[in-house]
Amino acid sequence: MANYFFTGFPGFIANNLIRQLIEDQQPESIFVLVLPEMMDRAEEEINNIIDEKQISPNLIHVVPGDITKPNLDMDITYQELFINNIHYVFHLAAIYALAVPKSIAFNVNVRGTQQVNEWVKTLNHLKRYVYFSTAYVSGKRTGKILETELDCRQEFKNHYEQTKFEAEVLVDQLKVNIPTTIIRPGVVCGHSKTGETIKFDGPYFMLNLMDALKTFPIPYIGKSDAYGNFVPVDYIFESTIYLAHATKGEGKTYHLADPNPYRMREVYSMLMQEFLGKMPKWTTPLTLARLSLSLSVTRKWLRVEKESLDYSRLLAEHDCSQAVQDLKGSGISCPDFKEVVPAIVQFYREHKNHPQYQIKID
């Protein structure tokens, strides 16, 4: 029996990792750090978990705090309790947005992670510190990218990537003295069975575009041999909980990516065939698409971020050999994206007009 601490609650990933944790382990207590303005929503989500999992109301505890402040801005009584009673820390709080301004991204992703790192160092009985990064700390690198690689003097496509890289560098330095596991997911998409997701980004930008243009002949966007790196959320949840508790996971970084990815044009075709029952017939130059999405009115109509185009032509392959090897024998493997497409499209079709899923496009 162990005690767990999560940042990033009530966010979608932290929320579902806790559900997976309850299924796979027997946690004694779970503590979730929550911003004061998110307390009501956090309590609501906890009640949902209690009802769904039929667990004791005393299993999950809300802790008011802020990762960007010293000691995470927690009350002194919590700090004293946690020093000798927290065994696993999952740090998920971050700004996950391609168009985020630099100052906001740095404050949360870098300064926040630095504060969490300093707090983790005070824990006397820590068994594992799990940090949620992203495969895209590789920035503009191309070719095969290994899980063991981090700082290769790469440049970045946006402030999200750069600040997540800077944060991971800080966490990576802890591996010498702190039992640490770093998780780098690819582009997280819907649940492989239900299609459920938290927001329509990544492959959903393609569906947004197709939905807006469905009465027109829809083109491919540019010519590229780039691979898509789309990973169902349930694979992320199951793998993370398993690797966080596996002895072999200590001190390692994992790409939770598709070991057999499809090219972006194939992904685009699969989504269009499933959603609209037709295939692209022509190709528009990427430069023209970028020019069009430079206009706010076009971005809002198509519900597509201009920054997403950078990923459609990135000739990078995120090698996940270490993750695949260490997951052997667990029964956990990444589903074939082709098999996930129907669930993703169905969920999108049912929720495409719900504002809570659509990202605000400026």
From TrEMBL:
Lineage of the organism: Bacteria, Bacillati, Bacillota, Bacilli, Bacillales
Database matches in Pfam families: NAD_binding_4
Residue ranges annotated for the Thioester reductase (TE) domain, each copy included: 7-238
Record protein name field: SDR family oxidoreductase
InterPro entries: FAR, FAR_NAD-bd, NAD(P)-bd_dom_sf
